[in-house]
Amino acid sequence: MKITLDTLADADIPACHALFVDAVHTLGRRHYNEAQCAAWAPSGTMPDSWRDGWAKRLSRAWGVKALSEDGRLAGFAWLLSDGEFDMLFVAPWAAGQGVGTRLVGALVYEADAAGLAELTAYASHGARPLFERAGFTTLRDNLVWRDGVAIENWIMKKALPGREAT
Ligand SMILES: CC(C)(COP(=O)(O)OP(=O)(O)OC[C@H]1O[C@@H](n2cnc3c(N)ncnc32)[C@H](O)[C@@H]1OP(=O)(O)O)[C@@H](O)C(=O)NCCC(=O)NCCS
């Protein structure tokens, strides 16, 4: 599938939220049960508190979106300026075609260019192989608690070599 990458903007947040809910309940559901998916990504309209929280985090992140040829949002990701991968979601109709890999690659490139020494990802079961292929090492498993529901993920790290000035 042909996609183009573009910078993620604040105005993209509502579309990203819709994609996030869809991705978790469809792709995430392959590895997590219904209660976990519901706690991870509550369905329905994005609450204002979430909208504000996402905007605040995106304002201190490198953000990228993937667009299909007809302009549809195929995926998005952002990486906080402290080196933490905060978001990585791909639309179910675009999954398994390398979109997630492209998004991660673009953000690793940005962080490396900015001089970050190390990246961290709290990778879902579904995203762990992708991060491994991108050079991340699994440190240990981890539990996130949402609404009393435990959601497992993996703490992963990647050291960045840095780029020599040209
Ligand atoms: C995890 C997620 C982001 C992966 O996105 P994706 O675009 O499907 O990822 P990719 O296509 O790059 O890689 C997924 C698989 O497709 C395969 N693939 C990659 N490029 C491909 C291509 N061009 N053609 C066919 N298959 C391809 C990969 O081998 C990979 O397989 P594996 O991960 O089982 O080893 C997506 O499934 C998602 O949004 N999941 C729900 C939410 C979630 O878990 N988010 C991550 C939070 S850390």
UniProtKB/TrEMBL annotation:
Domain N-acetyltransferase as annotated: residue spans: 3-161
UniProt cross-references to SUPFAM superfamilies, sorted A to Z: Acyl-CoA N-acyltransferases (Nat)
Segment forming the signal sequence: none
Protein's name in the database: GNAT family N-acetyltransferase
Annotated source species: Crenobacter cavernae
